[in-house]
Amino acid sequence: MAAIASTPLHAPPRATASPDSAATVTPKSTAPLEPVPSALEADKTTLPSPAIPAQREAGPTPADTGTPSTAAVRPEPLSDEDIIDMEQLGQILELDGEDGNYDFSWSMITEYFDQAARTFLDMEEAMEVKDLVKLGELGHFLKGSSAQLGVTRVQAICENVQHYGQRRDQEREVDISAEEALTMITNSIDPVKKEYGIAKEWLKEFFREKGIDVDADDD
């Protein structure tokens, strides 16, 4: 029997990968990877946004509804200087002397009250007969007595009445017709009475504080 030559068994050689022949790893997916948000960005995305309260729908304004605004119609209170010229009144008070007695100046005030009341009655009578000349004279008269005591608002309106009686509008510096003059005088009667009433109450309160019994001669 022939002898079988024994040759050493060798393990099969391992394949060595050369740099050029290195196997490339194919990624499982070719889709681009999403960027990983930072911690700050993660907080922004996870925190709920604060709730913003819904704005209340504005209601209609007075101009929309036609209702007059109470702020627009509320008159501003008058100061003493708006009612009485204190410098002029002070000259009247000086006539009483330094004894603290205001009887003389108060007598001038009460005489003015009587004059004004009579003048308003005369104006109404002159209006009925449309006597422009008489109306102008009455306006001139009451203007002078009001100026003497510093009743400036009555003085100003009566000066206008004086010029209207002469068919003249001093504010516009134009001549006016008799009809227009009568209309303007008519529109001046109520305002001058109102201003006189305000001044009368102010003067009575002023002399009451000085110890005068202002209601003794009140009509």
Describe the 3D structure.
One of its GO terms (cellular component) is nucleus. Pfam families: Hpt. It comes from Cylindrobasidium torrendii FP15055 ss-10. The modification Phosphohistidine is found at residue 140. The protein is mainly alpha-helical and 219 residues long. The chain has a domain at 79-94 and 101-208: HPT domain (Four Helix Bundle (Hemerythrin (Met), subunit A)), CATH 1.20.120. The protein contains nine helices and two strands; from the N terminus they run H-H-H-H-H-H-H-H-E-E-H. It has a two-stranded antiparallel ribbon. A hairpin with a 4-residue loop joins strand 1 (168-169) and strand 2 (174-175). The N and C termini lie far apart (174 Å). The model is unreliable at 1-76 (pLDDT under 50).
Assign the structural class, choosing from mainly alpha, mainly beta, alpha/beta, alpha+beta, or little secondary structure.
Answer: mainly alpha
SSE ordering: HHHHHHHHEEH
* CATH structural class of the domain at 79-94 and 101-208: Mainly Alpha
Number of strands: 2
The first-to-last residue Cα distance is: 174 Å
Classified in CATH, the superfamily of the domain at 79-94 and 101-208 is HPT domain
Number of helical regions? 9
* Average of the residue pLDDT scores: 75
CATH topology of the domain at 79-94 and 101-208: Four Helix Bundle (Hemerythrin (Met), subunit A)
